[in-house]
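Cross-check.
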Amino acid sequence: MIGTVRKHQTWLWIIIIAAVVVSFVIYFTPGVTLDRSHLGRSQFGWMYGKPIPRKAFLEAISEVQIRAFLRTGRWPDRTEAQQMGLDFERQAGERLVLADRMEKLGIVVSDADVARWIEENFQNPSQPGSARAMYESLVRELGRRGLSEADLARFIRHEIGITHLLDLTGVAGALVTPREAEAQYRRRHERFHAEVAVFTYSNYLAAVAVDPDQLARFYTNRRDFYRVPERVQVQFVRFALTNYYAQAEEELGRRTNLTAELDALYLKAGPNRFTDENGQVLPPEAAKAKIREELRDQEARLAARREAARFATELDKMEPRKPENLATLAAQKGLSVTTTAPFSEAEGPRGLEVPPQFARVAFSLSPERPFSGSLVGQDGVYLLAFLARFPSEIPPLEALQERVTEEYRREQAVLLARQAGTNFVATLTNQLAQGGIFSELATRAGATWIGLPVFTPAARNLPQWDPRVSLEQVKLVAAGLSPGTPSGVVATRDGALVLLLKQREPVAEAELREALPTYLAELRAQRRFDGFNDWFQRQIELTRLTLPRASESEP
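Predicted model, tokenized:
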């Protein structure tokens, strides 16, 4: 749900907007408006088997954009949204489902609820009474973006309504008892003391003999694994931001109040907003220099987009319309053209620093549609021209001889490592009973012995953990063992391991008493979200929400 509730849970709780809104001005790009690429669409999806009305969808899109702004401090357009992993269409559809559920369940948000929400979320803790001023500032910003106070009010009502839905559908979370939380905390924070014997394939590579017939059979059984996906090859012209820095500096120089503007942006963002590579807060002058660089890049990006648009207009007028026109016009303008090697849509061109959407745009081109529109990246603006498309294929073994041989040897070495682990386990229990030392027995068997740091089932990242051993795998194995008992052979990606659990140490009572209240609250919150998530999945099915395919969503 909404990219999974756990992943995006902050928007479901009441948003702490005040800290975000104070810093939004620094990201303001003059002349850039909200993404309006949806306006030319004729189809917005379906609910209950009926088309979603244009007005309803666009209102939902505006709410998604407001939410993105309040969370990130940016007004991302379609390109930036894709770079940030935001899917406006999907989120808009989900908000429509939630709004429909609010109406069906009779959830009504009053003006008093909205006023209370504004007071609670727009209030700067260090500035009592600032909520109204912050709200009005946001309304003015929305106006510059083509949105109204009514759009903001609708967004707020729906945010409050979503919280009510969360309360209704996640009620089971409140039913978690202290006893249940205590039992789970004890299980998840029990301390394990263990050691492992690791059998790694690299120690057995030398023992692998490559038989040509077996190698051919290995390749044949994995033919689809070696399939090369469809690829394209394109040419592109880049209008680099650095080429427009002088022009951008001139534009900034014409701002008579630039110093005051930088001061205002710095104060609005707050000193802690600007840090160096080590996370240390920058001095005021260094922070303002950083703001100025951002303003310069904004001006340079606008200039690059204008130049790219002029180039694209001339390109469109050239007849006959063919891919070679890009190089021809670029030569006339003194611009360099880059030709990519063939690349797949999943990987994109190798060795080139291009925008993330570069590959998607390249794959949309064809001889009939040879040129892309302007593609905005961090370092400049790109225009692409189609060159060639290569179908998917499976290269013959001869073309992949080195790669297939390497993979065959690795697979055989892994099998040998696991067999060595099996042989080790066969006599391990008796040897330990006779006073054998695990570390010495492991070394004698050709394994690598590793003494593990203390860990718990709840552990996630342990800085001192040996990367040759999977923490998650070891936790699962240790949970089923008694102290003094070795595991069986555990297959790993690189071979095998055998674990000896030395001790299970229960949670200290003092630690339990201190941690339990917080743990109980977190467990209830998690169950609350789980309940909401399950409920929402059912609502998607009930409303039969269907959104247009990507090809139907393009402007």
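Residues 190-226+399-505 form one domain. The chain has 19 helices and eleven strands. Passed to J.P. for a second look.
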